[in-house]
Amino acid sequence: MPEILLIHGSCHGAWCWRDVLAELQAMDQPARAIDLPGHGADPTPASDVTLDGYARAILDAIDTPVVLVGHSMGGFPITAAALEAPEKIAALVHVAAYIPASGRSLAQMRFDWPEQPLAGAIEKTGPHAFVFRDESHDPLFYHDCPEGTLNFARAHLTPQPLAPNDTALPGIPKVPRHAILCTEDRVIPPAYQAHMARDLPPGHVSELPTGHSPFFAAPKALAERLASIARAA
């Protein structure tokens, strides 16, 4: 059974997978989470962070083929890694994530959908990064999460480098791809998640009745879904 490698989304880090990792460990499913450059404990300055750098960090963390899981923005770096070294990837899993379209950056894809729930929630911190405004954290990201989640997240959130979000990818990787859609998501509209997953095999698309942070809202259910994909891979 391949290891699961968990990749976070914008402003987050490996810390957000804490509860999912505990559930996977209880199932004897090998799993790890890493900080992308400029996130969590990684000290890379935002000005030096690129999508290629994200992909290199992921591939450097892989020794044998993994089930590579990306949340939200993490859909782009996991795809970039799979394009560069598909032999290292047993499957990709997009969790409430952007599923890249060839030639479109994440920033472009966000505006491809009529609903814009992040309008007004993003604040630039300088020429190279942005944050989500404090008042957006609870209603958009953690509204269905257990008590204490908001304080835990705020203690760990970091600015999001801009360059990776402005970089398009040249194609679609030739590896199995899965999507877990979050039906109560207030960040990436559920209908848009379904639209991005429309070309995946029907058996590779499933739903969780959570908001944008299923790793906090439903860690056991998410872990079970990921472990099932790993067993099949």
Q: If classified by CATH, what would the architecture be?
A: 3-Layer(aba) Sandwich
> How are the strands of the biggest sheet laid out side by side?
2-1-3-4-8-9
Mean pLDDT score, rounded? Answer: 98
Distance between the termini: 7 Å
Number of H- or I-type helical stretches: 9
Structural class comes to alpha/beta
Low-confidence stretches: none
| Major sheet details | 6 strands, parallel
- Rounded to an integer in angstroms, the radius of gyration calculated over CA atoms is 16 Å
InterPro entries: AB_hydrolase_1 (IPR000073), AB_hydrolase_fold (IPR029058), MES/HNL (IPR045889)
Protein name: Pyrethroid hydrolase
Keywords: Hydrolase
EC number: 3.1.1.88
